[in-house]
Amino acid sequence: MKLELQGITKRFGSFTANDSIDLVVEPGEIHSLLGENGAGKSTLMNVLYGLYQPDGGRILLDGKPVSFSGPGDAMAAGIGMVHQHFMLVPVFTVAENVALGHEPTKGPMLDMATARAKVREISERFGFDINPDSVVEDLPVGAQQRVEIIKALSRRAEVLVLDEPTAVLTPQETDELMQIMKQLRDEGTSIVFITHKLREVRAVADRITVIRRGRIVGTADPSAEQSELANLMVGRSVALQFDKEEAPTGETAVSVRDLTVVDDAGLRTVDNVSFDVREGEILGIAGVQGNGQTELTEAIMGLQKNVWGSIRLGSTELVGRSTKQVLDAGVGFVPEDRTHDALISSFSVAENLVLDQHNRRPFGSALSLRLPRIRKHAQEQVEEFDIRTSGTDSPVGSLSGGNQQKVVMSRALSRDLSLFIAAQPTRGVDVGSIEFLHRRIIAARSEGTPVIIVSTELDEISQLSDRIAVMYRGRILGIVPGDESREVLGLMMAGYTAEAARAEVASGSTLANEELAAEGDIA
Amino acid sequence: MNSTAVSRAPITTGDSEVRLTEAKGRLPGWWKMPAALTFFALVSLLVFGIGGVRGQDSHFTIAHDSMFTSMGIPTEITVPSVPTAIVLSMVLLALAGFAWFMQATNRTWPRFAKPALQVGFGVLFAVAFLVWTVAAQSLNIEFLLKATLGLAVPLVFGALSGVLSERAGVINIAIEGQLLFGAFGAAVVGSMTGSPWIGMLAAPLVALVMGALLALFAVGYHVQQIIVGVVLNVLAVGLTSFFYGAVLKPQAERYNVPLRLPELRIPVLADIPLIGPMLFSQNILVYLMWVIVAVCTVALFRTRWGLRVRSVGEHPQAADTVGINVARTRWSNVLLGSAIAGLGGATLTVGTNVAFTQEISAGKGYIALAAMILGRYHPVGAAMAALFFAFATALQQNLGILSSSPLPAGVEKFTVPSEFLNMLPYIVTLLAVAGFVGRVRVPAADGKPYIK
Question: Least CB-CB distance to B20: which of A183, A267, A496?
Answer without folding.
Answer: A267
